[in-house]
Amino acid sequence: MLPIEDVKSLGLRSDLMIAEHKSVIERKEDYVVVKSPHNPGYYWGNFLIFNRPPTLRDAQLCSPKSWEYLFHREFSSMPQVNHMAFIWDCPEGMWGDADAFKALGYSMDTTEVLTADQVDSPLHANDKIRIREITSVDQWNAVTELLMLTREPQYQARTYRRYLVRKVETYRSMAMNQKGAWFGAFMGDDLVATLGMFTGYGVGRFQHVVTHPEYRRQGICGTLVHEIASLA
What we know:
The protein has 232 residues and is α+β, with helices and mostly antiparallel strands. The protein has helices spanning 10-19, 67-74, 99-102, 137-149, 157-176, 220-231, and strands at residues 24-27, 31-35, 47-50, 86-88, 130-133, 180-187, 190-200, 203-211. Helices cover 29% and strands 21% of the residues. Strand 3, helix 2 and strand 4 (86-88) form a beta-alpha-beta unit.
């Protein structure tokens, strides 16, 4: 399997850049295993990566080379992992025989990755906010609460908070190890928007770009993204 630098999808390459900080990434002959013992319930912290779309054989449950068989084998030492998740490095968008997995009850997701090699000023900049790097415990706690507030409605609060606290711990550790930084847009002492920026393997990646619901449509997010992209 190719090293991280040669992963074709920039989105997947930056996923692995984040994951390698606390997760275990193992290269096998035909796939890559990503394991997050610290966060076993995180789907995209515990998964297999293939460098091609799935075939009908990959969905055959009785085959020792099927993707399910490989997943069970790789995660047999982590009984807390109660899901199966697969990714293939195919930015061209080829699905292969993915319908064979849908017939087994899997849901299929695609990810649109926005990329840029330069940044332009926002059309409606907000000059009332103050942008600061997140460094103190209180600030990191405020980030966690804002991410909780802006979570998708399908996520149950208790379960999502457990996942989120572990993710924020990872981001804070990465920032302390100079792999990137976390930022907030403040009005007075109130955190009204936040995002992270991490770099490595030739890319920079934003994480969790969110604005407090009461402060949206005021140019805050666009201003924050532009300033941090320019800094990065």
